[in-house]
Amino acid sequence: MSSDPADSSRHHWRVEDIELNGIDRAAIEHNEDLFFMLLSASFVETGSDTYANNLAEHYGDHPEISAWLKRHWEAEELQHGHALRAYVEAVWPLFPWQQAYDGFFAEYSQLCTMEELYPDARLELVARCVVETGTTAYYQTLGGLTEEPVLKVLLGHIRNDEVSHFKHFLQYFKQLQQTQPVGRLQIARILYQRLKEMRESDSDVALRHVWAHRQGVGGAYGGAFFAQPSAQFEVMAQRIYRLVSSRLPADMAVRMLLKPLLLPHKVEGLLHAPIAKFATRVMSA
Question: Which of 233, 202, 219, 223 is nearest to 95 (CA)?
Answer without folding.
Answer: 219
